[in-house]
Amino acid sequence: MKLLELQRRMAADLMRPLTARDNLSPKSKAGEYITPNDRLTSRERLEIYSRSYWYRILDSLYDDFPGLRAIIGDEAFHRLSRAYLAAYPSESYTMRNLGHALESWLRPRRQYTAGQHALALDMVRLEWAHIVAFDGPSAKPMGPEDLLELGPALRMTVQPYITLLDLHYAVDDLRIAVSRKTDLHETASNAVTAPKHRAGKRRTIPRAKAKIHLAVHRFEDVVYYRRLEPESFRILTALRCGESIGQAIERGFEGSLLSADDYQAGIAQWFAVWAELGWLCKPPS
Amino acid sequence: MSFSGPSYPYSEMPANPFNGFTEYGIGIGLRIPHYQHIFEHQPVVDWFEIISENFMADGGRPMAVLDQILERYRVVQHGVSMYFGSAEKLNRDHLRRLKTLVKRTKTPWVTDHLCWGSVDGRYSHDLLPMPYTFEAARITARKVREARDFLEVPIAVENVSSYAEFHVSQMTEWEFLNEVVERADCGILLDVNNIYVSSRNHNFDPYTYLDSVAPERVAQIHIAGHSKFEKYILDTHDHPVIDPVWKLYSHAIRRIGPTATLLEWDDHIPSFDEVHREARKAGRYLPASCEIPTPVPVEAAL
Fold this sequence. Notes:
The complex is a heterodimer. Chain A is mainly α. Chain A has ten helices and five strands, in the order H-H-H-H-H-H-E-E-H-E-E-H-H-H-E. A three-stranded antiparallel β-sheet of chain A has the order 2-3-4. A two-stranded antiparallel ribbon of chain A has the order 1-5. In chain A, strand 3 and strand 4 form a beta hairpin. In chain A, helix 1 (3-15) crosses helix 2, helix 2 packs across helix 4 (74-87) and helix 3 runs antiparallel to helix 6 (117-135). Chain A starts with a helix and ends with a strand. Chain B has helices at 35-41, 61-72, 92-105, 134-151, 173-184, 192-202, 206-212, 243-256, 272-280, 298-301, and strands spanning 26-29, 48-51, 75-78, 110-113, 116-119, 122-128, 155-158, 187-191, 218-224, 227-228, 233-234, 261-264. Chain B contains ten helices and twelve strands. Chain B has one domain: Divalent-metal-dependent TIM barrel enzymes (TIM Barrel). The relative contact order of chain B is 0.18. In chain B, strand 5 and strand 6 form a beta hairpin. In chain B, helix 4 (134-151) packs across helix 5. In chain B, the strands form three sheets. In chain B, strands 1-2-3-4-7-8-9-12 form an eight-stranded parallel β-barrel, surrounded by four helices. Chain B has a two-stranded antiparallel ribbon with strand order 5-6. Chain B is globular, with a radius of gyration of 18 Å. The chains are: A mainly alpha, B alpha/beta. At the A-B interface, helix 1, helix 2 and helix 6 of A face helix 2, strand 5, strand 6, helix 4 and helix 6 of B.
């Protein structure tokens, strides 16, 4: 058997979902390429790797989505994780990206969210944004001096590590309330890991009376959730979409309840804050 | 237990092309639970081994932490996802990111594992065992050479712990290791704990393995703890090093000479001081002239 064929067969076998009792899938044909020894069958030897694979990626998702876990409960989260990871196995050298498609996968699958579908989706969006804000790329920020030449035709954008979210639930408050062991994604060397203990109470919150506009960002390498006025949210969204300053400011005022004077005052204040936080940068050339 | 082999003055330490002709002493793995202690107390440590992938991020806190460490400490990069043994080509984007990190850390050598872990773009995030065939040796060696030429830094490959063997294998693990490193002309990161674990799992004599390794190619040594189960041993890096592994280490040092040594502790990680104390036990096997001084806080040393 050639190397590529062997690796394809072994990868397919060990990545196949474990049984309900965490045993190797009966479809795996380990005996065709793995030798037994005096203590373990071929299947038992492959099972060590299959369990290691599943425990490792399940634990990574477990660490990355504590808020979702708190909402739907640990058992439902485990079912969801197994189904999602079977559909979206890792295609990156880092497990940091495992959850990148969770929102789109979960949206049409209400059966995994324990009756809290809208809340769960809001939390998934927030938690993926948190990961992006933690270690996503940054561009050189535009400082106050760059904004002196502010004109209606000027184009700028929002830092790539910032995610702008419009939410139906105050998942930012809930996420902060849910304790998290660490914010750092770390890979051990070649250690085999055991599955994490799963326990905890389910959390829920009522739907917000009005939409919540949020920027998930980082400042001095710490992730923050900053609530935004609807007008400033619309301006930032327009800037990210490539519109000019003038167009973005027009967008911000569409449907606003603010008076023109209050809106003008708000604009000056918002841009000053964004410049201070390093949120604005030149669009990629 | 004390060092009973020949004496190795510093000038005879096996600084070699594969570790950039360095004499790095005893290091420990840089791990998150120790960050606060390291930044507050600035302990004297010969060097830190970092997991490359933890610092191949685009920005944010990981890079800030790394820069703080680099201000005070020597760092060696250890990778877990190059997968030299995967049949598919090297991932160029991954290599580019790795090279950016190499330039940042100025690591004198880079290590990764003699294993595979991905196929058709899907990643296992594990260090999967190689079939010990000439085809696999040829493919693996070619990829090691390509990576070294791209990164422009010496590479050493680490023997992994394994729990499975293949019908197609044509040689022993140590023969395969030698076949790869000779073809690639690269170094060896000799993990004596992994040799012990695999020897128990596959019923071979670990000393036969050790005695077969080309000493002039050993760039670095790993030591670690593991977990014993009824039918096999797992490489868990969550315990102190056991005596049989220290004996293997002692044997390796007698054969190779004092070599840059790194203690791995990745799960149930105790305090920094406990990990450092465990690592420094390696000093018992070094000749007196190479022993590492007791760590003291920087302020006290000034």
